[in-house]
Each structure stands twice: as structure tokens, then as C-alpha cells.
């Protein structure tokens, strides 16, 4: 583009900006645009309205994106609560007092979200026979289910299973590892898409 063409284009652009910035005075001729036609007030008003609508659409999109991110974070937090593991003493399936609060939170979330279904899987440490540990794991899963049912959760929404000693969290043979492995794991198997916190 030549220098003269650049100057002409800039002059035309300045006329258009001036025309968009204020209304024509009575009795004046509307400013020409870059194509040589006339810019009238209706066009300016339309451009302004379009700009406002576009800005509103952008703002709405940003709000929706922020809302979606916040909603996903809240859902993830509730899923995390539902998935928290509880632990057991050696050769026992009684719910420990420290884990009752964890189960209470799970029950509250399930009562607020009636489409949620979960599976509770009982696990054991490596000591004892396979048959004994499968039975003990099932008792541990059933104990957690019974606790949730006493808190008002429909029993049909809770499956139970046992893996005995087959899937340890820690394969070491010491007290610390065994304590980790004596546990119930919780998995959301249905209804986890749109969750609301308890109390809403």
C-alpha cells in the first residue's frame, strides 16, 4: 500500500470514528465512511446496540464459565467426601468412633442427592486365610452399610463386596502397612453427575 493510500485510509477511519462518537448536528451532512457512502444515525445506533449485545454475550459467557468451574469444584469435593476410606482394628468390623463423622457426612450427601448409589468394598491385612479374610471384608463393608442405613439412606442404594487381603494399599509386612490395609473403600457407581451439598 502506498503512503498516499495509507493517509486516505486513516482519514476515512477518523471520519468514521467521529461519526460513531456523536450525533449529527441538525442541518449537517453525515460523515462519509471509508467506502464513500454516508453514515447515518440509525447505523451508529445499530453499531452501538450490537456492541452492547456482544459485550453482554461475552460477560455472560465468562459468568457461565466461572459458574461451571465452581460447580465442578463443588461436585469434586462431594465425590471426594463420598470416597473417603475408613479403617478397622485388627480382626474387627466395628465402626471406629473416629470414622463415624466420616460416615455421617457420606449419609448427609446421599440424603441430599437421592440418585447416588455407592459400592462399599471391605479389605483386610495379609494375616489369616483367604476364606477368613473374604468373610471379614464382607462384614466390614456390611457394617458401614448398616451405619448409613441407620442414618436414613435407602439400603437399595448401597452395594457391598469384599476383596479380603487381595488388594493391599501397602504390601509391607508390618503394623503400619496392616493398619492401612484394614479398610472399607467407597465408590460412587451412579448419580454422581450433578450433586448438591447437604442443607440446600
General description of the model:
With 200 residues, the chain is α+β, with helices and mostly antiparallel strands. The chain has two domains: 3-66, no CATH class; 84-190, 60s Ribosomal Protein L30, Chain: A, CATH 3.30.1330.60. 53% of the residues lie in helices and 12% in strands. It has five helices and four strands. The chain has helices spanning 3-21, 41-83, 97-112, 130-150, 175-181, and strands spanning 86-87, 117-123, 158-164, 183-190. It has a four-stranded mixed sheet. The longest helix has 43 residues, at 41-83. The two termini are 64 Å apart.
Please give a handful of descriptors for the protein shown.
200 residues; alpha+beta; 60s Ribosomal Protein L30, Chain: A; 2 domains; 4-stranded mixed β-sheet; 4 strands; 53% helix; 12% strand; elongated; disordered N terminus
Round the Cα radius of gyration to an integer and report it.
Answer: 33 Å
Shape: elongated
Distance between the termini: 64 Å
What strand line-up does the widest sheet have? 1-4-2-3
Number of strands: 4
How much is the average pLDDT?
Answer: 81
Biggest sheet layout:
4 strands, mixed
CATH superfamily of the largest domain: OmpA-like domain
CATH architecture verdict of the largest domain? 2-Layer Sandwich
**Backbone structural class:** alpha+beta
Number of helices: 5
Low-confidence stretches: 2-34
Helix content: 40-55%
Amino acid at each position: 500500500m502506498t503512503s498516499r493510500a495509507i493517509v486516505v485510509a486513516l482519514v476515512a477511519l477518523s471520519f468514521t470514528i467521529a461519526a460513531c462518537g456523536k450525533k449529527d448536528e441538525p442541518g449537517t451532512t453525515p460523515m462519509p465512511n471509508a467506502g464513500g457512502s454516508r453514515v447515518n444515525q440509525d447505523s451508529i445506533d445499530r453499531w452501538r446496540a450490537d456492541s452492547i449485545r456482544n459485550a453482554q454475550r461475552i460477560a455472560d459467557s465468562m459468568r457461565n464459565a466461572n459458574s461451571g468451574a465452581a460447580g465442578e469444584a463443588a461436585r469434586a469435593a462431594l465425590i471426594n467426601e463420598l470416597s473417603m476410606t475408613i479403617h478397622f482394628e485388627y480382626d474387627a468390623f466395628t465402626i471406629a468412633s473416629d470414622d463415624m463423622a466420616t460416615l455421617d457426612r457420606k449419609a448427609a450427601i446421599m440424603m441430599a442427592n437421592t440418585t447416588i448409589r455407592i459400592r462399599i468394598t471391605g479389605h483386610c491385612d495379609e494375616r489369616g486365610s483367604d476364606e477368613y479374610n473374604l468373610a471379614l471384608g464382607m462384614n466390614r463393608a456390611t457394617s458401614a452399610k448398616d451405619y448409613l442405613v441407620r442414618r436414613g439412606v435407602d439400603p437399595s442404594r448401597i452395594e457391598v463386596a469384599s476383596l479380603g487381603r487381595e488388594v493391599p494399599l501397602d504390601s509391607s509386612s508390618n503394623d503400619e502397612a496392616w493398619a492401612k490395609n484394614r479398610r472399607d473403600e467407597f465408590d460412587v457407581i451412579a448419580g454422581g453427575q450433578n450433586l448438591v451439598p447437604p442443607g440446600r
